[in-house]
Amino acid sequence: AFTLEAGTTIWGYPKVMADFTIREGAQFGFDCVIDGQLVIGMDFRRGLPIRLTPRQQAQRSYSHRDGVTRETGFEHTLDGVRTRIGGVRVRLGDHPYAKELASLGLPKRAIVSSSADQVQMTFGDAQEIS
Predict the structure, then answer these.
(1) Which residues of the chain have pLDDT under 70?
(2) All domains of the chain, ordered by start, with CATH?
(3) Whole-model pTM above 0.85?
(4) How far apart are CA 112 and CA 39, in angstroms?
């Protein structure tokens, strides 16, 4: 529950507690369930390895909660990246969040999909920008 509390309190991200069922193998994926209702399921096919030297990259994320917009800088390093054209199937369930995702046009056919064997991230302090 630490990441839920930290994500909402420190950075203002809209986080909720959910149950995930992870499937591993040549085809891999997950189902996200909240209160017994499927929100989203994603099934991936492995892509081709992209040989990159892992390096730290800096990016920014934004959140809006309780009328406050925040900007948070973060750094991440990826290793074992695989990419392919298409390669993912998205399924939406009956949970209200699934209906919200459907209102945004999901599910759509993926143009490209990527996966990473290892991801390391560090987040800075959120800065209020409005």
Answers:
(1) none
(2) 2-128 (2.40.400.10)
(3) no
(4) 22
Each residue's pLDDT tens digit, 48-69: 998 877 789 999 999 999 899 9
**Spatial CA neighbour of 1 closest among 121, 9, 105, 51:** 9
pLDDT of residue 16: 93
What is the amino acid identity at position 102?
A: A
- Distance in angstroms (rounded) separating the CA atoms of residues 9 and 18: 18
- Cα–Cα distance for residue pair 63/10, rounded to 1 Å: 11
pLDDT of residue 32: 98
CA distances from 125 to 10, 29, 122, 129, 130 (A): 7, 32, 10, 13, 15
Distance CA 11, CA 126 (A): 5
In the numeric block, the tokens 């959140």 are attached to: 63
The 3-state secondary structure of 27-87, one letter per residue: EEEEEEEECCEEEEEEEEECCEECCCCCCCEEEEEEEEECCEEEEEEEEEEEECCEEEECC
